[in-house]
Amino acid sequence: MNSIVGRSLLTLTDFSTEELRFILDVSHQVKRERRAGEHHSRFAGKSLAMIFEKRSTRTRAAFETAFGEEGGHPVFLSSQDIQLGAKETIEDTARVLGRMFDIIEFRGFEQRAVEVLASFSGVPVINGLTDMFHPTQALADLMTIEEHMGTLAGVQSVYIGDGHNNVSISLMLGAARMGMNHCVICPAERTPNPKYVTRAQEYAEQSGGSITIDHDPRSINRNTNVVYTDVWVSMGEEDRAEERIAPLRPYQVTGELMSRAPQAVFLHCLPAVRGNEMTTEVIDGPQSRVFDQAENRKHTIKAVMLATLGLA
Ligand code: CP
Ligand code: NVA
Fold first, then answer.
1. Residue 137 CB less than 6 A away from ligand 1
2. What is the DSSP string of 76-132?
3. CATH number for the 2-133+296-308 domain, one of 3.30.450.150, 3.40.50.1370, 2.30.30.100, 3.40.190.10?
4. CA-CA distance, 80 to 225, in Å (whole number)?
5. Which residues are the active-site residues?
6. 294 CA to middle of ligand 1, Å?
7. Ligand 2 site, residue 293, Cβ cutoff 6 A
8. In CATH terms, is domain 137-293 a member of 3.40.50.1370?
9. Which residue from 72, 80, 172, 173 has the least number of CB within 10 angstroms?
10. Res. 85: pLDDT tops 80
11. In this predicted model, what pLDDT tens digit does every residue of 243-287 receive, in sequence order?
């Protein structure tokens, strides 16, 4: 799809419904290819810079294996080791990396950092998580929901827990783009930023979906197709753990809560804290699809790189 070539993915709002549809279609395709044992070399001769200021298992593994297995050269750059923002401005690092790499992944704290990298590098920059957004996670979430439901339009999804965090906001925006009926159930103090709720509601109006905010976990019912949660304390907020956790306790996903929605799948971006945001019986139970979801990080990330590099 020509409109995606050369673009960055800094937040899901960067891409239209049609562009997200294209990336999801490519994601399903590359998953089928892998299942069929097909080998391709679409990244041959290309290099990927992977900058990490925060820890990662899935995102790092997904980028590195997706790029490397198709002949590309991924280079892991921990912020402990490079000059980024310490001895050198982000602008200068971006200019240098743009001359050596075809594409850049960034995981870190400030959204401004990915924006600067995208503005100054001249190559596509993919946001691998910031304090504000986690767009590649939302793509894997949508892919997993589509695998389960066969569609996205009209799906009744619930995100329960810390509604204000990066994963919640990105899922809400993605659900709105794709015509889902998405509800965020959270304590009042962890409601998503109203700016993004308004944006998501505008998208939902165009796509035929809906976005609602609720504070009662009992709103999960027989019509709910997806129950999603994330950690109560995100990376970088560890010193605020106590104030975060107390109001979130009533929002734990329990077996009893899942039994209200017997057809629903349970999703979590992982890593998970058993005994906090959900009980062990839920994450390890029959409704859980969290490891399909984790695997789909790789297929969706490969699809984003193929699409932005003009190789899809
Ligand atoms: N879901 C996710 O981003 O996992 P990692 O922090 O392990 O990359
Ligand atoms: N909200 C979590 C997601 C981790 C993948 C965090 O930012 O730590």
1. yes
2. EEETTTS-BTTTB-HHHHHHHHHHH-SEEEEESS-HHHHHHHHHHH-S-EEE---SS
3. 3.40.50.1370
4. 42
5. 107, 134, 137, 230, 269, 297
6. 8
7. no
8. yes
9. 80
10. no
11. 999 999 999 999 999 999 999 999 999 999 999 999 999 999 999
